[in-house]
């Protein structure tokens, strides 16, 4: 059974930093593209950053230069280092694992972790 468990969210002031972690179980981590998405109140879920199994990264324009996604294939964990946080970064951050390029017909989501940036 695949499980994604996020941690590291919290309340931080503008300009501060947070590091999110997502631990994956179920044997799909190494073959999955991993991603972070976020959803602000009243808005649709949006892509923040992704990293392929080979390590290629992609970022939303709004976070380029401030956020860094990385993965540890030994610990089966993906990270999101968030620096220079802004109030508009506030939202629930979700971890996503997508193995469909290699195996299966679905992707997987974590339960989300709240990030609140105060002005």
In short:
By secondary structure, the chain is an all-beta fold. The protein is 0% helix and 51% strand. Strands 2, 4, 5, 6, 9, 10 and 11 form a seven-stranded mixed sheet that branches.
Descriptive notes:
- It is a single chain.
- This protein has 119 residues and is mostly beta strands.
- Helices cover 0% and strands 51% of the residues.
- It is built from no helices and eleven strands.
- It has strands at 3-7, 10-13, 18-25, 33-39, 46-51, 57-59, 67-72, 77-82, 91-98, 108-109, 113-118.
- Strands 2, 4, 5, 6, 9, 10 and 11 form a seven-stranded mixed beta sheet that branches. Strands 1-3-8-7 form a four-stranded antiparallel beta sheet, with no helix packed on it.
- β5 and β6 form a beta hairpin.
- The mean pLDDT is 96.
Helix content: under 10%
Overall geometry comes to globular
Strand residue content: over 45%
The structural class is mainly beta
Q: Give the oligomeric state of the chains in this entry, treating copies of one chain as homo and distinct chains as hetero.
A: single chain
Q: Provide mean pLDDT, rounded.
A: 96
User: What is the end-to-end distance?
Assistant: 40 Å
Please mark out the parts with pLDDT under 50 across 5 or more consecutive residues, or reply none. Answer: none
Q: How would you spell out the order of helices and strands? A: EEEEEEEEEEE
Q: How many strand units?
A: 11
Specify the biggest β-sheet: 7 strands, mixed
Rg from alpha-carbon coordinates: 14 Å
Count of helix runs: 0
């Amino acid at each position: 059974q695949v499980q994604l468990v996020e941690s590291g969210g919290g309340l931080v002031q503008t300009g501060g930093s947070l590091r999110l972690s997502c631990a994956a179980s179920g044997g799909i981590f190494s073959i999955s593209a991993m991603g972070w998405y976020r959803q602000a109140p009243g808005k649709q879920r949006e892509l923040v950053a992704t990293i392929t199994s080979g390590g290629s990264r992609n970022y939303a324009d709004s976070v380029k230069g401030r956020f860094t996604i990385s993965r540890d294939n030994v610990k089966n964990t993906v990270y999101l280092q968030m620096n220079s946080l802004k109030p508009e970064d506030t939202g629930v951050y979700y971890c996503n694992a997508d193995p469909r390029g290699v195996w299966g017909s679905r992707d997987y989501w974590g339960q989300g972790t709240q990030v609140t940036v105060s002005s």
